[in-house]
Write a sequence for this structure.
C-alpha cells in the first residue's frame, strides 16, 4: 500500500508538470467520450423508435397464422380453425394485449383515383392497447364496434385519392372463390401516422364487416399478441406455442420483420465497434503524451532507478499517470453527455430530412436514449484500452539503465 501511495503521488504530480499538454489531452478524451455516448444515444433512440413504431404498425410481438399466409396473404389462406375457438385459446395466454384480424390485399377507389392497399378488419376495442391506429386519429372518429360500417384511411391516402371525411369510397378484394368482393364505405376517420408509408398503404374496417365482405364468417387471418418487452419475447412465444397446435405457424416479430430484427442486432454490435474506433483515434494522442512525458523525465527516471526504485514501480507510475488522465476525461465526458442528452430526450425534430429517414422506417422525431449500460461500456473500454496503450511507453521507461539515463543529454 505504501508503494502504491508513492506511485500515485508521483503520477499525479507528473501529470500536472505540463498543464497545457495535460489539459489538451483531457479535453480530447472528454470530447471523445462525449461523442461516443452522444452518438450511441442517438442511434439507440433511432433504432428503438423504429422497432417500437414497427411493432405499433400492427405486428405485435408474436403472431399466429395459417402456414401459407405469409407467402400468400390472401383470404384463401385464413386459418381453418373457427375464430370462436381461436379466441378462447388466445384469451388463456398471459399477454399485455392480444387481438385477431382479417388482413387481405385490396384496392381502394374514389371517384378520382385508385390505389392498392392492405385491408385490415379489426376489433376496435382490442386494437386500442396494441396498435397505433387508435391514438393517431386526426379527423373524424375511431370505429365503434366489430360491426361498424365505416372506414379509416390515412391522411396521405386521402390526399392521393382526393377524398375527405364523410365521402364514400369503394374497397375491392377477392373472396375464397376468387370472385370480386367489393363494397362502398363512408370515410369516418382519417389517421395521421408517424410514418407516411402507413398512411398510404393501410385501411381499416370493422372485423365482422370484413368477414361478411370477404365471405369468411367465423374465420380470421391472424392472431397478434403483445408482451412486456420487445427485446425478450421468448417466454411469450413459448406460451403461445404451448396453446396452439402445430397446424398453425407461430412467429416472433423479428422473424416477421427481419429488417427491424437485423437492425436491432446490428445496433447492439455497433455500440462496441463505435466506442473502440473513437478510442483508437484518441490513443495516438494518449501514447504521444506519455512518450513526451517519459522523454522529458529520462534523467529523473534514471536517478530514481539508481536510488533503488524497482523498474516495476516506474512502469506502474506511468500507467497510473495514464489512468488518472483518462479518469478525469471520462468523468468530464460522462457529465457532458448527461447535460447535453437529457434535455433532448423529449424529442429532436428532424423533419427536414424526414423523407430520407422514412426510407429506413424512422419517424421525423428522434428521441435519444441514454442507457447507463452504454456509459459503463464506454468507461470500461476506454480504461482497458488506455491501460494497454500506456504499457509501451511505461515499459520503455522501466527498461532504462540508470547510468545511461542520468548521463543522457
Amino acid at each position: 500500500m505504501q508503494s502504491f501511495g508513492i506511485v500515485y503521488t508521483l503520477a499525479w504530480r507528473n501529470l500536472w508538470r505540463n498543464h497545457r499538454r495535460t489539459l489538451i489531452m483531457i479535453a480530447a478524451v472528454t470530447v471523445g467520450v462525449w461523442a461516443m455516448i452522444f452518438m450511441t444515444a442517438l442511434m439507440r433512440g433511432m433504432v428503438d423508435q423504429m422497432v417500437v413504431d414497427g411493432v405499433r404498425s400492427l405486428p405485435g410481438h408474436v403472431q399466429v397464422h395459417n402456414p401459407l399466409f405469409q407467402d400468400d396473404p390472401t383470404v384463401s389462406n385464413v386459418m381453418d380453425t373457427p375464430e370462436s375457438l381461436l379466441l378462447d385459446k388466445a384469451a388463456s395466454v398471459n399477454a399485455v394485449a392480444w387481438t385477431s384480424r382479417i388482413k387481405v390485399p385490396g384496392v381502394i377507389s374514389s371517384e378520382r383515383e385508385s390505389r392498392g392497399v392492405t385491408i385490415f378488419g379489426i376489433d376496435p376495442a382490442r386494437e386500442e392497447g396494441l396498435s397505433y391506429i387508435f391514438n393517431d386519429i386526426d379527423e373524424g372518429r375511431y370505429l365503434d364496434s366489430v360491426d361498424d360500417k365505416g372506414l379509416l384511411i390515412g391522411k396521405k391516402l386521402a390526399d392521393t385519392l382526393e377524398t375527405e371525411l364523410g365521402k364514400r369510397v369503394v374497397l375491392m378484394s377477392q373472396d375464397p372463390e376468387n370472385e370480386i368482393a367489393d363494397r362502398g364505405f363512408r370515410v369516418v376517420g382519417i389517421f395521421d401516422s408517424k410514418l407516411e408509408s402507413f398512411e398510404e398503404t393501410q385501411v381499416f374496417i370493422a372485423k365482422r364487416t370484413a368477414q361478411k365482405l370477404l365471405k369468411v364468417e367465423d374465420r380470421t387471418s391472424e392472431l397478434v399478441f403483445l408482451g412486456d418487452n420487445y427485446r425478450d419475447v421468448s417466454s411469450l412465444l413459448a406460451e403461445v406455442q404451448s396453446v396452439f397446435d402445430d397446424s398453425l405457424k407461430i412467429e416472433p416479430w423479428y422473424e416477421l420483420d427481419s429488417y427491424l430484427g437485423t437492425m436491432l442486432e446490428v445496433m447492439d454490435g455497433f455500440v462496441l465497434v463505435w466506442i473502440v474506433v473513437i478510442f483508437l483515434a484518441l490513443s495516438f494522442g494518449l501514447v504521444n503524451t506519455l512518450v513526451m512525458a517519459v522523454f522529458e523525465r529520462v534523467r529523473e527516471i534514471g536517478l530514481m532507478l539508481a536510488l533503488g526504485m524497482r523498474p516495476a514501480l516506474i512502469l506502474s507510475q506511468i500507467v497510473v499517470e495514464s489512468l488518472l488522465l483518462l479518469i478525469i476525461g471520462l468523468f468530464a465526458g460522462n457529465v457532458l453527455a448527461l447535460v447535453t442528452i437529457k434535455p433532448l430526450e423529449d424529442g429532436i425534430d428532424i423533419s427536414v430530412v424526414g423523407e430520407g429517414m422514412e426510407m429506413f422506417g424512422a419517424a421525423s422525431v428522434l428521441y435519444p436514449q441514454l442507457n447507463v449500460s452504454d456509459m459503463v461500456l464506454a468507461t470500461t473500454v476506454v480504461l482497458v484500452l488506455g491501460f494497454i496503450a500506456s504499457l509501451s511507453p511505461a515499459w520503455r521507461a522501466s527498461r532504462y539503465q540508470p547510468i545511461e539515463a542520468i548521463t543522457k543529454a
Observations:
- The mean pLDDT is 82.
- The longest helix spans residues 258-296.
